[in-house]
Amino acid sequence: MKRDWVARRPFDGVPSRWACIMAGGLGRRFWPLSRRTRPKHLIPVVGADTLLRQTGQRLADVVGWDHLMVVTNGEQASAVRTELPELPTGHVLAEPVGRNTAACVGLALRWLQLRREEGGTVGFFPSDHVVEDLDGFRLCLDRAWALAESGRVVAFGIVPTSPETGYGYMRVGAALHDAAQPRAFEVKSFHEKPDLAHARQWAVSGEHFWNSGMFVAKVDVLWAELARLLPATAEVLRRLGSELGDDDLAAHREVYSGLADVSVDHGIMEHSHLMAMVESTFRWDDVGSWEAASRYWPLSAGDNRLLGGDVTLVDCSGCRVRSEDLLVALVGMQDVIVVQSGDAILVCPRDRAQDVKALVENLETGARKRYL
Q1: What three-state secondary structure class fits 189?
Q2: Which member of 32, 214, 257, 323 lies 3.0 to 4.6 Å from 156 by CB, making a disulfide possible if both were Cys?
Q3: Please, are residues 282 and 136 in contact by the beta-carbon 8 Å criterion?
Q4: What is the pLDDT of residues 168-185, one digit of tens each?
């Protein structure tokens, strides 16, 4: 059913501020707890609430539920609505096929255009990050809003605390408005996940920051950059037109499949001259693997961390074990991850946690698809 969208601005004369949660990921590194219809952001990886619920509440506290939207996929749309029942009808956009983050961002911008929100500002936030120090988060977000409303595309950079090879990096240049806090900089360049040698160098350079994946821009400014740098993507999205009144876009699969599969970083940010970065002073974690998630589990004797159901260890050290509903017993093991969920059990060395994604890719062919 199509809906007649009417612009709703909370304060006359003040540009409206929106937040978009990007929730289309599959969470392969969190198998077997994460499955196709229950990915990372829809499971309680850290704390009692799902990561999506934590993200939604954090952003709703800033912009209000009426100015919050989610872009996800058809398989997850129902679960997203269940997790965020406060969202108004139509604020969950279900992509009929995944086309990476540039399409996700473009879809949200087009939706806002159709609501006559071209002069507003929108922030984009992954659905599966942990943010601590909410006051610090709001302070950085206020700084980003102000820069974005002056015409910048503003990313959030995290000060490196270790030589991480699993993150993208931003290299910054001149500081902007030195008197204002938190600090903000011009962005010189973006760098994909580096090798260990570069990660060690960048972690202490003072001019490289982790790319958090969060950013803020005016709707019309970011759309203009999208249309300039990815004109074919913009053209496809224009063709959807008023059909974006339907939050489920399954009927438009053929049109949507014509979108390029490209990330917003590669497609827009690496080539835009409008990029700025706010130095994020709050604690942030993208919780990208079971090893990362286990930092939040209770610590027991022998540097073991255990969570969930019935777990027993004998002569084990440095193990990370999560059980959903079965007894998991380990004897004489060191530095392993064990996760039991439903009909599957994962066992791997802690230093191979990132390789769970490759394991899941192997399961995507043949009879084992049922475990996904």
Answers
A1: strand
A2: 214
A3: yes
A4: 899 999 998 766 789 999
CA distance 184 to 237: 32
Q: Are residue 58 and residue 142 in the same domain, yes or no? A: yes
Do 259 and 341 lie in one domain? The reply is: no
How far apart are alpha carbons 257 and 22 in whole angstroms? 18
What is the chain's length?
A: 372
pLDDT along the chain (372 residues), means of 10: 35 73 87 88 90 96 96 91 95 90 94 91 95 92 94 95 87 82 91 88 90 96 97 90 61 82 94 95 89 93 91 96 94 97 94 90 82 82
Q: Are residues 356 and 216 in the same domain?
A: no
Cβ atoms of 216 and 122 within 8 Å: the answer is yes
> What was the pLDDT predicted at 2?
33
| Domain identity same for 350 and 232 | no
Whole-angstrom distance, CA of residue 359 vs CA of residue 348: 11
- For residue 226, CA distances in Å to 86, 103, 143, 288 come to 30, 10, 23, 28
The tally of domains found in the chain comes to 2
Of 12, 21, 41, 278, the C-alpha closest to 138 is 278
Strand extents, DSSP E, 110-263: 121-126, 130-132, 153-158, 169-176, 184-191, 208-218
Tokens coding 4:
């007649």
Q: Crossing angle for the helix pair 219-229 and 231-240, nearest 10 degrees?
A: 120
Interatomic CA distance for residues 248 and 86, integer angstroms: 18
